[in-house]
TrEMBL record:
Domain of life per record: Bacteria
Descriptive protein name: Uncharacterized protein
InterPro entries given in the database record: PcfJ (IPR025586)
UniProt xrefs under Pfam families: PcfJ
Key words, A-Z: Coiled coil
Any coiled-coil regions, as ranges: 350-400
Amino acid sequence: MEVSMNTATAKQAIKQCFQSLTDEQLQQYHLNHDYFTGRPLGKPQVPHNRVEVDPSIQKKQRNLSRLNEVLYPTPTLGSVMGDALAALKLVPEKSISTDTVLLKKPSEGLVDRAKSWFDQYQVDGLESLLPAQADQLTEMNLAVIKRAFSHNTVLIQNVCMLSPFWLRSPLEWDEQSDGDLLEYLFVQYDAPAFLKSCWYDAADEESVRWLLCFVMYAQGGSLKALAKHFNWTLVSNKLWHELFSCPTDLSPQHAVLYAEFYRLGGWTEDFSCLMENESYVIDLLEPISEESRDFWYDTCRWTISHQLELAAEENTKVLWWARHQFTEHARNGESYRLQGRSQAKVLDSIAEYELEKHRFEQARARMAARAVQVSMARGAERERLRLENIEEQAARRERQHFNYFDYEEMDATWASHGWNWSTFIHGKNWRFTELTTSQQLRDEGNAMSHCVGSYTGSCVNQDSAIFSLRDEAGRVATVEVDPVLKEVNQAQGKCNSDLRKAAQSVIEKWIKEVVLR
């Protein structure tokens, strides 16, 4: 009893001691004093920094949590009986049932309902949508759906999430006569086969758009009106018809590329060549830039018009060369198109560039061999070889027709601008690292399959600062910054591809918080 009284007295004394302290003062006290004895610490403790969480990830987690609360509530006697009835396929008489719901049929209002549902999903998430869907998401309906799709939790979640667009009640479904429950609930007309795979992907704003497109196809809604609401920009409305020709294993982004390439007259074999080059895997419905999308269409039309003459290897080289020229011209504020150029002229330009590149590689090999000799030489011999090397470089530069490799035959270094930076955003760790040697530029160019290895001259002259953007998986982008204007000249992914929106937002944050500071 005495110990108990002493403990209570001690707690009361501590409470009175800290009664007048604010939360901030209390935190500072604990950082500077031992937690158990109250004695001052020799060195203050360092509080842990809070990790910044991406709002989109938080929203996705809230949606999933809310949906699971509906799908898997705490068991009650009523829910257990409902599950048992569904398992036995015993449906209560309709005259006394409260679970049978009169579902809305496809109508002219389908698009308006889809727009309204999507807008509410974007703003408030499923937290505000699911209560309004209580008439469909009854215990007995959920029991039927969970039994039919027991092998796939994500499919269960998506089917229930879009319950406002059910055509029929799950309670009336008969597996033997009605077939697949997904088609029974949603489908009245045919939809492109690749869209069915979207039901098996965890829901986010992008996948939900394509699920609603599936609903439009399956129930006769206007895809043109829905696409306009999504702010998708289409070159041709024939896209919606061409999507039926897409292979079933394509993602929505690749399916749109395939449908447009096929609409322009392309062949499947040439489309495979196109997709092997990552710079041509772009979002045609929400392009990062109109210039990039116009270039995609221009290049596709040119290669399709020459598909009878171009071998697969030549086609691959043309695609790489066109993208290389496009990015190099863009640095100078110019545009580049293949249209209007003859096949012979394009192939000659590629051959000339490859020959120049081969000469450059041979020159580097000779330089490496000569470096070994120079390291072994002494006095006058070393000086003679150095002067001979300088004269040879000067003569070679005078003979060159292109300026790609003027500075690249020497290994140069230059000072860093102090803009290296790392951050955590979009659920990943990102890191900006400046490349300050010729070898680092060549390594970046080889890893990313583009020509940044030839930018030594720009870096030595302080016209450019080159950074490698990487995430936890490796290299994501190469970024060129104007050191004077502190602006991004260009940012390219592998094979000079356009960057994803996440990478673009990271670069914008870096420029704002580090480069312009």
